[in-house]
Amino acid sequence: MANRFRHERLLEVKDLMLRLKSISLRDREDEHLKRNGQLAITRDEKRRHLTVDQPAAVRDVRLLRPQDLQIQAWYTEQLNEDLRREIYDVRVAEEAVHKQRQVVEKSAMEMQSLEKLKERHLQVANLESEREDQKALNEMAARQHSRAAGLGRT
Q1: How far apart are CA 19 and CA 4, in angstroms?
Q2: Cβ–Cβ under 8 Å, residues 76 and 49
Q3: Which of 107, 120, 128, 132 is found 20 to 30 A from 139 (Cα to Cα)?
Q4: Which of 115, 104, 124 is nearest to 12 (CA)?
Q5: Are residues 18 and 12 in contact, defined by beta-carbon separation less than 8 angstroms?
Q6: What radius of gyration, in Å, describes the C-alpha atoms of the chain?
Q7: What does the pLDDT look like over 100-118, one tens digit per residue?
Q8: What is the pLDDT of residues 46-91, one digit of tens each?
Q9: Is 15:111 a contact under the CB 8 Å cutoff?
Q10: How many CB atoms lie within 10 A of CB 35?
């Protein structure tokens, strides 16, 4: 086709890139959800650890040994550190999702621009084709008219 859109290959590549970026975005969103889930689990674990519904021996502080209290304190601190790390991981994953979403949106806008360019190109090509067809019809009509006029004189 003589009027082939000259940026067709670029459009195909951009479409492929947009698909790949969208897949990457979904992966990052999945990672973000996974991190949020792990954070919720750790928060629940800390909440359970700090609840008053502990065995009678633990509620009666007089029966606890100093080592038991130290273990409880260490475990609480470990849970706090896990929570800090997981909150950080969630924020990092959230930022990655945000950045990837921006990349996908930019790529989609570029695709849209190319699609509009292609559409305009096709409109111009169709208009040129219609003009050529009309010109050919006019030439055929003129030849028939001149033949008919030439036959009418004899």
Answers
A1: 24
A2: yes
A3: 120
A4: 115
A5: no
A6: 37
A7: 999 999 999 998 998 898 8
A8: 898 888 555 544 555 566 688 888 888 899 999 999 999 999 999 9
A9: yes
A10: 19
SS3 93: helix
Which residue shows structure tokens 């290959």?
A: 9
Distance CA(68)–CA(74), nearest Å, equals 10
Residue with tokens 């010109």: 135
**Distance between CA atoms of 15 and 107, rounded to whole angstroms?**
9
What's the token pair of residue 92?
């990092």
CB contact at 8 A, 133 and 71: no
Cα angle, residue 38 at apex, residues 84 and 97 outer, rounded to 5°: 85
Distance CA 149, CA 45 (A): 101
Token pair in block for residue 136:
């050919």
